[in-house]
Design a protein that fits this description.
Elements: H1 2-15, H2 25-32, H3 49-59, H4 64-76
């Protein structure tokens, strides 16, 4: 009977282990996010750390600590969107083009 109780307790503890514990945020991203997201850049989208970590905890992370670490990492590498392609210096930009052909007289 004692042996059965010990086996049940051991199985419960083993099942409750956090497999993400001790992993760096970079490793967490590589293991869980890189399948869908090629890069962590821009994923935080300027969100607050608290709301980002709540979102990650509810949807992707295995614990609050993991979610907080991943949120901090995403904020650290968050970059603004690239600027629009600049026109050549000195070039004038014309207005909207007409769909009608221009007739010469």
């Amino acid at each position: 009977m004692t042996l059965a109780a010990a086996a049940v307790l051991t199985a419960t503890v083993a099942a409750a282990q956090n497999l993400d514990a001790g992993k760096s945020p970079q490793k967490l991203f590589a293991d869980g996010c890189a399948t869908c997201h090629r890069s962590p850049h821009g994923l935080a989208k300027g969100r607050f750390n608290l709301t980002l970590s709540w979102f990650l905890k509810d949807h992707y992370a295995t614990s609050s600590d993991t979610a907080k670490a991943l949120a901090a990492y995403l904020e650290a590498v968050d970059t603004p969107p690239p600027p629009r392609a600049a026109t050549k210096p000195g070039a004038k930009r014309s207005g909207p083009r007409s769909s009608k052909p221009v007739q010469s007289q």
